Amino acid sequence: MTEEIGVGMVGHAFMGAVHSHAWRSVHRFFDVPLTPRLAVLGGRDAVRTKEAATKYGWAAAETDWRALVARDDVGIVDICTPGDTHAEIALAALAAGKHVLCEKPLANTVAEAEAMAAAAAEAATRGVRSMVAFNYRRVPAIALARKLVAEGRIGEIRHVRAVYLQDWLSDPESPMTWRLRREHAGSGALGDLGAHIVDAAQYVTGDLITGVSGTTETFVRSRPDGDGRGEVTVDDAAVFLARFSSGALGTFEATRYALGRKNSMRLEVNGTRGSLAFDFESMNELSVFSEDDGSAAGFRRLLVTEPDHPYVGAWWPPGHLIGYEHTFTHEVADFLTAIGGDVDPAPSFADGLRVQRVLAAVEESAGQQSTWTTIGETR
Amino acid sequence: MTEEIGVGMVGHAFMGAVHSHAWRSVHRFFDVPLTPRLAVLGGRDAVRTKEAATKYGWAAAETDWRALVARDDVGIVDICTPGDTHAEIALAALAAGKHVLCEKPLANTVAEAEAMAAAAAEAATRGVRSMVAFNYRRVPAIALARKLVAEGRIGEIRHVRAVYLQDWLSDPESPMTWRLRREHAGSGALGDLGAHIVDAAQYVTGDLITGVSGTTETFVRSRPDGDGRGEVTVDDAAVFLARFSSGALGTFEATRYALGRKNSMRLEVNGTRGSLAFDFESMNELSVFSEDDGSAAGFRRLLVTEPDHPYVGAWWPPGHLIGYEHTFTHEVADFLTAIGGDVDPAPSFADGLRVQRVLAAVEESAGQQSTWTTIGETR
Amino acid sequence: MTEEIGVGMVGHAFMGAVHSHAWRSVHRFFDVPLTPRLAVLGGRDAVRTKEAATKYGWAAAETDWRALVARDDVGIVDICTPGDTHAEIALAALAAGKHVLCEKPLANTVAEAEAMAAAAAEAATRGVRSMVAFNYRRVPAIALARKLVAEGRIGEIRHVRAVYLQDWLSDPESPMTWRLRREHAGSGALGDLGAHIVDAAQYVTGDLITGVSGTTETFVRSRPDGDGRGEVTVDDAAVFLARFSSGALGTFEATRYALGRKNSMRLEVNGTRGSLAFDFESMNELSVFSEDDGSAAGFRRLLVTEPDHPYVGAWWPPGHLIGYEHTFTHEVADFLTAIGGDVDPAPSFADGLRVQRVLAAVEESAGQQSTWTTIGETR
Amino acid sequence: MTEEIGVGMVGHAFMGAVHSHAWRSVHRFFDVPLTPRLAVLGGRDAVRTKEAATKYGWAAAETDWRALVARDDVGIVDICTPGDTHAEIALAALAAGKHVLCEKPLANTVAEAEAMAAAAAEAATRGVRSMVAFNYRRVPAIALARKLVAEGRIGEIRHVRAVYLQDWLSDPESPMTWRLRREHAGSGALGDLGAHIVDAAQYVTGDLITGVSGTTETFVRSRPDGDGRGEVTVDDAAVFLARFSSGALGTFEATRYALGRKNSMRLEVNGTRGSLAFDFESMNELSVFSEDDGSAAGFRRLLVTEPDHPYVGAWWPPGHLIGYEHTFTHEVADFLTAIGGDVDPAPSFADGLRVQRVLAAVEESAGQQSTWTTIGETR
After folding, report:
1. Rounded CA separation C82/D93 (Å)
2. ipTM score of the complex?
3. Is A312 a residue whose pLDDT tops 70?
4. Domain limits at D47?
5. Which of the pair, D378 or B73, is modelled with greater confidence?
6. How many domains is chain B partitioned into structurally?
7. Any CB–CB contact under 8 A between C264 and chain B?
8. Taking Cα atoms as reference points, which of B17, B168, B152 lies closest to residue B78?
9. What single-letter DSSP state applies at residue B3?
10. Nearest to A303 among D18, D281, D321 (CB)
11. Å from D157 to nearest chain C CA?
């Protein structure tokens, strides 16, 4: 086993459970230069945090994230809290010289994200690394898609078509959560789901979105909340058109009202030499069209489980699927590898900021009759 | 056999071939109140029109569409020409008391479409019928989709997602055609493909689009044309956001650059009780999700080949597919039934005008930085 | 238009309707050397035959098939009756010098099929042509599959997996039909459905089945029949293992009890260089795997609608599907082409006999504890 | 955390890696009555076993399985070795009062399996539990399939169609392994893959196979082996027909030569009320047809990721897939739950014996011209 590095993780809900699994398992499958030690779990409620620490295998529990950040046995701070706390924790951790892994979206505002990206850039000069957790980049099929584009096998990109469809709000009587309050979540489907497809589209194409036209909607404006009803202050759905710097056209949709679509993050790319199609509900598959196939051309359903596919060599023989949490194991492996190799991991906080700017432009356009809105600054 | 009615058809290219088949075959499968007689085929070139008439089974050929319209043995005029000639022929035919079936898009401009809709409304008072040939309404799966929505099985509509993807212009060196010249085609992918999905989306949901935000693109601005190069004066692709009067959100895309997608006219509808998904490349199938299925819910792949599905009873046993041209046979059957029953068929010229207004609004929005543009008048 | 040839067709049920359409339409789409004239329709009931003749476009009707065969205006006899009458009609027609198209299975017994094959061979020496109507050979995807195998792109065949699944007998109370009586139908699912997959498997692989082990089952032994119940005297389902002369292994299943499968004639072929998969419920598609695709290999879903795919050039642009009846139009086109070109069409009566021998071997094996049973003679 | 129980595992290849992960992770996701402690890993080579123990998280390593079995800190013996060693280890462990989890197939011969089943039955009287590792029973979709059958939603079963297709031997020059030697593996595709589909078919239907007719094939009889070539002494593929005690017909195929099918373990069941279809290459999905859906019936693609689906509640929100190794985590959870609850887990060694008898009957039939062979004794 390699040298250990202590991890302090803040937050123990859904993301906390998945990240815990990744930190526990990564060195069992990947040759990482540092072996993570699950040093301390942070949470607001002492009892529940202690229980979660025991369940997920953390050595200690803390209710004060500042104490967690300050601990000598913590080399990495992993931020799994709602978006409104990301900036504060990340800035403190970077200042304290801790490597930071931060859940997406990077922040709730562009201003926060700018501060974080600046701090990350400064920290990098001190050898302190940071990464934003766009885990879908670590789906083997998506990493393979990027590789095929980068190799030129898709040609010049003409179209990107990305949707992220869920349905857990279809029922107008499903209750309030923090995700439906702007002060905690920043936005609704846009930041939660739209952030993933913006990042994935830019990652796969290797290109940046330069402008958008969008609109958002809140279909159900109040929901059961305890004994009364709470006001929904975020979008239920967001749709937008986009252009990439290459001239490619994009269409994007994020919604929590697509009944029957549980987690359908779909990405299609059409180029001058080939096309790609992906759906996270079949996450081990990538559909690839190549005009080189001539009259025997058709979309190939690749099972992305071959040993030479990205990340796959660490797992099982061909045809044996992996699941959702593997993307986090891959993410953590890449992060540890970057720390160990003293290089900056990707996606950086600057990448997270870039996504944030796109989301902000969508909201700005939506507030101005969908007028085309450019993304000011490129990374 | 029922009483005969003479048909005069103008145009004998792709649409002419398909319409000929429909006129020849309809009474072999459907109990229509009038039996079509293929009286006369119109075309500009005498030799080629005569050849086509023989091949497709027309009794005579005419090079002057005015002569065709004027013939006593013509009771129906079927217009299969490019969009720039629709208005003139249709107006003359309606004035002459002939029933008119007109290919889509109804016209190249809103003004033409308005004149046609007005003439059709006036002619209807004289018992003269008219219909625009949105044949995709006659795909059994799409007709079934409308029925499911109308029965309330999908609930209140939240989302419509419609694309029409082709790839025949992917190659920048594929040559010029009339479809790439604004003066003949009116627009590019927008009018050719976008018209179909706008009509289908409105038909299936039973709802109207009230506003759009869009952008268009011409990826390849000149193409080989004879010995030189011709300028492409229409859009290669059009993307737009839409709202329906119910408040549902729509996203639309029409393109001829989606490599590998040959004729992928896809429609998805998400409602509060169920969802629908369709792809014309699998035109005999409809995917239906119903929340009534509880924890055994999933998208059902219906093979729309049961005798009680729309139009299917006229054809083969369950599981025996039908093809593209059947939609035209259905269209002609419906048209003859309406004429025989002395009622107005659908889609009317007013429906065609409605689609035209949406397309015009997309172009207007595209010319104004994608600013939201409302569709002035409902049908 | 080319020279006419008169067609006399016996039988006007399901197959009669489909064949009528093919005879009416073939020359509108294919350049055939002879134009069929729908001269006379044969049936047992005078009134119903006359009605069918009118509906389907036949010039005359006959209740005596011998009179139909004897007519001077009949050059082709098309046999669409149940299997127990095939031999008698075909032998008379061939003797009378008429070209014969005979529905499958060729006959109800090997002895009948032998007599028919012998008569066809003799007639061929006189320029009289005969063909058995295995229409699935004329599915473009199946014809393309054969082409890919013949070109060596699949390599040496290891496995064939063929099922033909229907479900119209799932309900034990669905009524008796002639198809459930041995004296008319010869056998049940075996002859009706099994015949198709045996022929298709041999056609696609270009190889012959040399032995089988099988078993059959009649799940429901009596069914409603008028006021009483009738005894089912054929198999409801047949399953068998097979070996091809190349050494490939085959598994076959024919059933009318596969609930939810309406017409699922599926064929999979695995070779040393590639694999093929087909399902008639998606008849415009062929799935092709090629090991040449390397780590980007996956089953390609080919839409078999390209102009250079078999038969497709006669129809619509890429992505516009064809349906079930098109296979009969192709069949008739091939038959007319063979007659006009003075060559023997395929599949010949000898091919039909070969299939019959396989079916008989399955029944023999089933009657002998599934003991392996070889097919005596190759074509 | 609950009381600990020490685990000693023999074997550290593919199965060892997967089992290790399950033992390490099970209590992080499931509320198990005993928390496994990874006490000792057994292997033949001291260095490699020690390395594997470190990598997979085992506290100690042993090269003598008898010593491992004898250790006081071992309460469970987990057998992950080739089939020729199962009986000896299992018998010793049961005799020593250790609970035993044994990889499939249970043994290489019926005689061994009989001895093991007898020993397990005897041990159970002492409270010592045993289970055979048919992990596919723990695929949520397969467990759900069994539940649907048990609830009567599929009705009376008519057909079972099961294949297990892999392609890793397609290349005739891929090298020898222990899996291709009868003395180690017992049989080839039959025992390795066929065992899974026999067990799954019996598990899902809740029914037993009573007789079979089969044949086997070795396509490539020698393969590269070190500097020379080794003889392949097992089957490359096995195909067989079967009958269940209910009268249902089954077809089975196991092969390593289905090019392009990486791990396609497919199961289809047709009943009088509904049908099921599953493919392990899409292991999070189950297709369900229900005749109750009427004319809106079609195969529903269920994403088996809902909290009320078997095992799923322990994992992620709907639409977030799980992978191959999860089936082992489920298996271990069930085993620990049975031990803690003092009840016999399933599948028992008797179930494993039952599968062994079916496999032996297939080989017996194959050796006797495929003659129907009954399975002597039911469990």
Report:
1. 66
2. 0.95
3. yes
4. 4-135
5. B73
6. 2
7. yes
8. B17
9. P
10. D281
11. 10
